[in-house]
Amino acid sequence: MSLKNKPRQTVPLRFAVVTMSDKGFQGEREDTSGQALIELFKYEGMELCFYRIVPDQRDSIIHSIIESIDSAHADLVITTGGTGVSPSDITPECMDELFEKEVPGIAEAMRTESFKITPRAVISRGRAGIRGQSLIINLPGSKKAALENIMVVLPALSHAIEKIKGNQDDCAT
């Protein structure tokens, strides 16, 4: 079967967005990155099943991501914020309690492409990994950086999720 004739997935992927922001949680800042990601994934034909703004606190971050997977059944969880080097940036450390498998190529690709835009990409500490049958990707908190980063890996996400869910098809393109 050629790729052109391969049937597309009939059930839309379910996605969650969790924004880490003390100011956003307190209503002092609009969540532009989270909203932009929601728009993008809806445009791509995915279904939003969970959205939350949480403070930069370990328990809030971990609980929200677990809830998005276990209760809302997200196939893809996108986090935005908390990936830098500020004292409150703890998103990557929280992933230690969530990931069953790390997928380092996703974060490596995003940082590599982002570095072509700004040398500040080297201080981004976002990670990607698997929990159950869900893919979790950490993105920077700024709208511009979040969109630039996710666009790098967007073409591979559906395939990655299919593989995580047990699809046995070959990975060759």
Produce a short descriptive summary.
By secondary structure, the chain is α/β, with parallel strands linked by helices.
Structural features, described:
The chain is globular and about 45 Å long. Residues 1-8 have low confidence and may be disordered. The protein has a 6-stranded mixed β-sheet, with helices on both faces. It is built from 6 helices and 6 strands. The relative contact order is 0.17. Helix 2 (32-43) packs across helix 6 and helix 5 runs antiparallel to helix 6 (143-164). By secondary structure, the protein is an alpha/beta fold.
Low-confidence stretches: 1-8
Overall pLDDT confidence: 93
Q: Please tell me how large the radius of gyration is.
A: 16 Å
End-to-end distance: 12 Å
Report the helical percentage.
Answer: 25-40%
Question: How many strand elements?
Answer: 6
Number of helices: 6
Strand fraction: 15-25%
- What is the helix/strand order? EHHEHEHEHEEH
Major sheet, described briefly? 6 strands, mixed
- Report the oligomer: single chain
Rough outline = globular
| Spatial arrangement of strands, main beta sheet | 2-1-3-6-5-4
Question: Which class of secondary structure composition applies to the elements?
Answer: alpha/beta
Secondary structure: elements and pairs:
Blueprint: E1 14-20, H1 22-25, H2 32-43, E2 47-54, H3 58-70, E3 76-80, H4 91-95, E4 101-102, H5 104-115, E5 128-131, E6 134-139, H6 143-164
Parallel strand pairs: 1-2, 1-3, 3-6
Antiparallel strand pairs: 4-5, 5-6
Helix pairs in contact: 2-6, 5-6
